[in-house]
Write a structure and sequence with these properties.
With 100 residues, this protein is an all-alpha fold. The protein is 51% helix and 0% strand.
Length: 100
């Protein structure tokens, strides 16, 4: 089991960080760094996950904000149509709970 470095603990406030295996939960880890990460966290992510896995996490994520998803789609050169949280249906569901 690989443990993430201590500087990432602030992004995983809702789990037992000491028992967290980032390789088994790669999509969750990448999604958190997409949404909340700083430069150090992003550099760590790019070194520890292959580009294909990072793109897969972006495409399958439902929890990213529209702003973060658009940003990462541009950075990773992904088609926005392939990013699940940018689909119209996902945005409409989100606005039911947060209409702003």
């Amino acid at each position: 089991m690989k443990k993430p470095p201590k500087f990432l603990k602030k992004y995983f406030w809702d789990i037992d960080f000491e028992a967290f295996d980032y390789e088994n939960y790669s999509c969750y880890t990448i999604e958190r760094i997409f949404e909340y990460g700083d430069k150090q966290a992003i550099n760590w992510m790019l070194k520890n996950f292959p580009r294909s896995q990072i793109i897969y996490a972006l495409q399958k994520s439902r929890g990213l904000s529209e702003k973060s998803a658009n940003f990462w789609a541009l950075i990773l050169n992904c088609r926005k149509e392939g990013v699940r949280c940018l689909n119209r249906s996902s945005q409409e569901i989100r606005k039911q709970f947060w209409p702003y």
